[in-house]
Amino acid sequence: MSSALDTNMRFKFSILALLLEVIIIVLFGIFVEYKNSVATLYPFFQDVQVMIFIGFGFLMTFLKKYGFSSVGINMLIAAFGLQWGTLMQGFWHMERGKICVDIRRMINADFSTATALISFGAVLGKTSPVQMLILTILEITIFACNEHLVTEILQATDVGASMTIHVFGAYFGLAVTLVLYRPGLKNKHENEESTYHSDIFAMIGTLFLWIFWPSFNSANVPEQTDRIRAVVNTYYSLAACTVVTFALSSLLDQRGKFSIILIQNATLAGGVAIGTCADLSIHPFAAMCIGSIAGIISVLGFHFLTPLLASKLNIHDTCGVHNLHGLPGILGGITGIVVAAIKEEVRQDDSFTPGMQAAALGSSLGIALAGGALTGGILKLPFLGQASDQNCFDDSVYWEVPEKEKTHEIHSNNHDEHTRFEATM
Amino acid sequence: MSSALDTNMRFKFSILALLLEVIIIVLFGIFVEYKNSVATLYPFFQDVQVMIFIGFGFLMTFLKKYGFSSVGINMLIAAFGLQWGTLMQGFWHMERGKICVDIRRMINADFSTATALISFGAVLGKTSPVQMLILTILEITIFACNEHLVTEILQATDVGASMTIHVFGAYFGLAVTLVLYRPGLKNKHENEESTYHSDIFAMIGTLFLWIFWPSFNSANVPEQTDRIRAVVNTYYSLAACTVVTFALSSLLDQRGKFSIILIQNATLAGGVAIGTCADLSIHPFAAMCIGSIAGIISVLGFHFLTPLLASKLNIHDTCGVHNLHGLPGILGGITGIVVAAIKEEVRQDDSFTPGMQAAALGSSLGIALAGGALTGGILKLPFLGQASDQNCFDDSVYWEVPEKEKTHEIHSNNHDEHTRFEATM
Amino acid sequence: MSSALDTNMRFKFSILALLLEVIIIVLFGIFVEYKNSVATLYPFFQDVQVMIFIGFGFLMTFLKKYGFSSVGINMLIAAFGLQWGTLMQGFWHMERGKICVDIRRMINADFSTATALISFGAVLGKTSPVQMLILTILEITIFACNEHLVTEILQATDVGASMTIHVFGAYFGLAVTLVLYRPGLKNKHENEESTYHSDIFAMIGTLFLWIFWPSFNSANVPEQTDRIRAVVNTYYSLAACTVVTFALSSLLDQRGKFSIILIQNATLAGGVAIGTCADLSIHPFAAMCIGSIAGIISVLGFHFLTPLLASKLNIHDTCGVHNLHGLPGILGGITGIVVAAIKEEVRQDDSFTPGMQAAALGSSLGIALAGGALTGGILKLPFLGQASDQNCFDDSVYWEVPEKEKTHEIHSNNHDEHTRFEATM
Q1: Taking CB atoms and an 8 Å cutoff, what residues of chain B touch A9?
Q2: Taking CB atoms and an 8 Å cutoff, what residues of chain B touch A82?
Q3: I need a surface site. Which of A148, A394, B299, C330 has the fewest CB within 10 A?
Q4: In this protein, which residues make up the domain named Ammonium transporter AmtB-like (chains A, B, C) (predicted)?
């Protein structure tokens, strides 16, 4: 069968998407209602929205020929996922048989999409939009169950979601990408590169994530004093992480040069790692230590672990989500265990125990890996429109790409390898 | 007369702009005063600011050679228009002979510029900055009258301005572009195309509009519970619209490929269409139905109607504002009529009747068409610096464009020094 | 010694950065504590964050080969500076031996970094990251002293920091760039140019600065009514400034064409100039006059003064910070003196006198020039990794730049039809 046939998702995608939207609308009709609420959280909600749609979307635009998909499929996953997430999380919090929507529920709906977007980063360039819709449904469903387990049953602390979102999303995505492993991509694909301007586009994502991360970590804090503390801790954690990332990036390069990949990603690890303990009185200097360690772990992960995972374990992690979300998320989880063990005064709550925190981390990790493996198995079904190895990391498989550029690509068949590169600029 | 002479607006533009600014400052001196007010609406104001300056500006950067004008003239229209709008809307709401400015008035000043920016989308690439200043003055003046008619005299509901801004701005622009019709642009202009990166720039506009649309639709809602409801309805309407747009975009393409133009524009139709009824208890699932229908209408408009309007009716709509603002705005207006007819309990107000809603829609449409035709007639005056057909959609007529690129275009048939420049793109 | 050796900052940069981070964390451990506070200022804080990281960062991306440094080193300076600024400003405001951090302190920490970012604009492309770290430490330290002098000792009015941030940052940077003067850059460097897309990236910075400037000028106003007034004045000042800038930009060009450099920069002068008096009842029309004059001064500065400073005084100001921050800041300071002299009713405070305002302006200017000269002297030390003249304005000295582009540069010596396409990018 030709590759053109394989990836034509005209009916598969459109029918699946429309069907899902109809189902969601019916479920909303049955279950969802407005809830009267105040607007206190509205600025936090809007900050989170910017992170989800601009932050995650642009962070992934670094690939030279995959910008439409990065920002476009990110938007699709988020817009679809927030509806599905409203239902999945809502089912665990029904009030008299109804899901009552207010700003807090919408923030959480946005949060639930973050897991799918993190996993999207792991498989970026290697999956079809049909596969991403299915992944979004499965991941958000499983996420909602794990989140309920962690916050309601284990009653663990995880206000900035280091475990429930970052660890979960990263390891879910890694399990998927492992199951979907393609030997043909073992060697670096010629499209899996950035250009100067695609890297600058990616910095738009990085910076908006950085700026609004304090809102992400504090939006779910119920009490205002604690919420401000979450903002303060996240702010200083990120700042320390950024300085450390720059330092290590230079140190690890023989010529002392900075790596834009590290600046785009590892500078954010401080926001992930402080998540679990963000609202606790751990002291700003402790927040900065956590941020610094997160930066170190993340840089080392990108530098040593990612190539190793790819070559030894067949885990190809396109955006390096393991280093940005996975490892710093685990650090966040461990921090929670340690703080619960040594600092009893930080929270009066009896439920804040090392055991429960460890259970929460284990549950997030385990359920993510199992859920990701299961999802990967389903996504492996042959009729889901996956691109051939050769066409990976290339928008033109699923998108109409500007005419001039294609014309150009055709005309330019016989001047050197650089023409393809120019065509994608 | 040479085209260079025609488009040199050195004295025309600068004298007109300075004169207008002097007049505005004098009028501010006579009429405008501060009003004590609270900061509740400040975050909504800032969200609207982002939509006006970044959202509208970047949405139009998709043209490969018209980015400076898109984002620059957008800024000019907005900065000029918000001053003029403060006066025009203010004259209808004087308090003891004074226009009292607070955050609400500034939000409405921003809103008034949105009409001119929507119309700018219809004529994009075909008008001079002088023409755009004149259009802005006339359109905002007429808009303020229609808005007064709709909200004060007819007392119609239109909280998110589906009719007063979107229908008005779109049909005003379409009337202008019809009157300014150029047979020479009948065939697709070689500059009327995007490049890969210009399309990604445009997505910055799309996403910020998408993210902050709930603020746009709720900023003018007086009561807080209703304001949150407007946020909820807009959020879910946009989400449903986005999924449907992706589905139809794939369905309408033979190879099942997504169109970036549709993703840039039709995904926003849900925000427009929910505008009129955003604050009413129509139920979230109804908001999603409205969003879905808006997506369908907008995609079909881009796919079938825009080429037809251009070829049969001589209406060349550069950005497709008819599909993003016009048709979804009419849908919003019709929704208002239907809701007024069938759901009496949603608003106790006696004034919320199908008749008044229909009158508001008719008035917005009719006044826009008449006002646009009149404005188009004035803009047709030969000395306003319009570019020749050949130079349409090209920044270099009204902007200094980076030297290297021009040099490059001329010199570049035979190597070397330009390569460094290309490498940095 | 080869240039490769000179600019390899592998150990210099990383050890300095890590050492500074450790010192800062220790100082935080000793001196910093949380302060209970309310979230009223949180939206203002987030707006300022966007200005610092996105606004300043992207504004400087106009150089064709210096985008990574503009946005990356901007991030480094800001992340490092906000920690250092917390300490330096905090030492002047200790409560029982502790620096108590809340949203207001974080806003001020962000503000303190703005001075270093403005100075970065003056030396952009000519300094190493090591030099920038040292500059940041020195400048923020001196800034905190001058700010204490101006606001606490002189008790001058400067709510939007026209003097303490804009005048200070600009003249500090100019003094540094004068001391670091390189005769080899006398003639325009071939890298000191923009490309079409780099200019559009810069507009992202401009627009976010423009949009959120009202938050910058009002964040430090203690009373809410005054805060809204600062927002109103800044909004209209910027709007008037923008229209005037467009008018003059066209007027000063023989062909009447707009200059994107002026639109990127001079449109913001209105925000700078209104800073000192932003919260006073000066009347909106006066704000618009100040904005208009700021636009005129800034445009004339770019057009006539910058080339003169470079050729006659050996002051090479890469971004033209003198025109965006220096001159409009002085205008702001003078406005403060005039308002204090003629309008006694605007502030009851006895301390608001022309003399004190003049002393504040003189102090900001004098301390900046002296501090900048001193800093420049230190930065001149030969082992700080400064690039050779030839390698100025080029990311590849301090950054790994995408491989393909370098390859491309080598291969692309002899083809044709693709060049036009590239030229339009």
Answers
A1: 250, 256
A2: 235, 239
A3: A148
A4: 22-382
The answer to pTM > 0.90 is yes
Helix axes C10-31 and C129-148, enclosed angle (nearest 10)? 30
Both tokens of C365, joined, read 């200017």
Query: What is each CA distance from C153 to B287, C85, C147, C341, in whole angstroms?
Result: 58, 20, 9, 20
Portion of chain B with pLDDT greater than 90, in percent = 85
**Interacting residues of C288 by C-beta distance below 8 A, sequence separation 6+:** B21, B24, B25, B28, B83, C236, C237, C239, C240
Cβ A406 vs Cβ A396: under 8 Å? yes
Per residue in A75-113, pLDDT tens? 999 999 999 999 999 999 999 999 999 999 999 999 999
The neighbour count for residue B93, using CB atoms within 10 Å, is 13
Residue with tokens 């050769």: A390
What is the average per-residue pLDDT within C37-59?
95
Neighbours of A79 (CB within 10 A): 28
| Residue with the two structure tokens 């962690």 | A150
Beta strands in C222-279 (DSSP E): 258-259
Chain C residues whose CB is inside 8 A of the B418 CB are: 419
Distance CA B274, CA B284 (A): 11
Question: What burial letters (b/e) apply to B146-185, b meaning 16+ CB within 10 Å?
Answer: bbbbbbeebebbbbbbbbbbbbbbbbbbbbbbbbbbeeeb
C277-309 burial by CB neighbour count: b if 16+ within 10 A, else e? bbbbbbbbbbbbbbbbbbbbbbbebbbebbeeb
CB-CB under 8 Å, B288 with A24: yes
Closest partner residue to C421 (CB to CB) among A203, A247, A404 is A404
More confidently predicted of C3 and C236: C236
Quick check: B8 and C195 CB within 8 A?
no
Look at residues C146, C162, C152, C115 and name the one whose alpha carbon lies nearest to residue C338: C162
Q: Distance from A380 to chain C by nearest Cα, in Å?
A: 33
The token pair that represents C370 in the structure block: 């002296």
Paired strand residues for B63: B194
Under 8 Å CB-to-CB from B348, ≥6 apart: which residues? none
Q: How far apart are CA B316 and CA B177, in angstroms?
A: 6
DSSP A44-65: HHHHHHHIIIIIHHHHGGGBTT
Place of tokens 């919408």: A106
Q: Which amino acid is at A412?
A: S
CA–CA distance, B315 with B262 (Å, rounded to integer): 19
DSSP for B2-28 reads -HHHHH--HHHHHHHHHHHHHHHHHHH
The one-character DSSP state at B268 is G
Domains of chain C and CATH, by start: 44-380 (1.10.3430.10)
ipTM: 0.93
What pLDDT band is residue A347 in, cutting at 50, 70 and 90? Answer: low
User: Which of B396, B385, B322, B405 shows the shortest CA–CA distance to B66?
Assistant: B396
Chain C interface, best mutation among B3, B5, B25, B200, by max C CB count within 10 A:
B25
Measured CA distances, A304 to A260, A298, A300, B200 (Å): 16, 10, 6, 32
Among residues A152, A169, A147, A180, the alpha carbon closest in space to that of A371 is found at: A169
Distance of CA A299 to the CA centre of its chain: 18
- Rounded-to-10 torsion of CA C203, C209, C211, C212: 160
User: B263 near B249, Cβ under 8 Å?
Assistant: yes
Query: What is the chain C residue with the closest CA to A210?
Result: C53
Tell me how far apart the alpha carbons of residues A302 and C346 are, in angstroms, rounded to a whole number. Answer: 58
Judge: C225–B36 Cβ closer than 8 Å, yes or no: yes
Nearest Cα residue to B329 out of B151, B88, B167, B160: B167
Rounded Cα gap, residues C331 and C324, in angstroms: 11
Question: How many C-beta neighbours within 10 Å does residue A183 have?
Answer: 8
Range B68-88 average pLDDT: 97
